[in-house]
Amino acid sequence: MKKRSCIDYSTPYSAFPFIKLNFFKAGLIPIYESFHDRLFPYSELMGNNKRIEEVTAGNGVTKIYIGTPYSTTHYEVGEPVGIYRIYEGVTGKTYKSVVTSFGTITKIVRIKQFGREIISLQDYLKLAGNKTVFSQDELMTIFLNNKNVEMIELVYNGFFGKGNNVNHKSLKDVELFPTHPYNIDYTKNEFIKILEMGGINVQNIIID
Known about the structure:
single chain; alpha+beta
């Protein structure tokens, strides 16, 4: 239990499950549905009754996301982010790709940049540990087959729940999906708007 009047915002962990009040920008982290559902098993979708494979990473508050962006991203430690589940089907993407949950970035490690190894393969595998949804073979494939590899550690602050996820169409309609998720920078008010669209009582997450 934590008192709302004396929350320690020095780190995202000490503040958990709250998000610090004085953030200046926020973002979206895109993740394909097959990986999303293993890493964020509590971020459920309406009508999705398929059994989710249980993995260690899915049960932890700390999540490690491994992305392969086209160029260097501009996320920052301490930045709140929405988790954007990308629907992999052929049709209906704008209605079935949704923001399901939100967290706070705690660490960013650039593994490869423009084909140059910044972190060795062995160190990369150690950093990933058991907090990703990837097997050792999958981690190695990502490392070897991509020019840009980025590891983002985050605290999983919360989720919207079935029937409350915010789809791509809704975000576009209110001009909150202007470009590729990797390139989006939200203002504080814009991010709060997304939380509200997901049915979150912001006063219980961002304590003023």
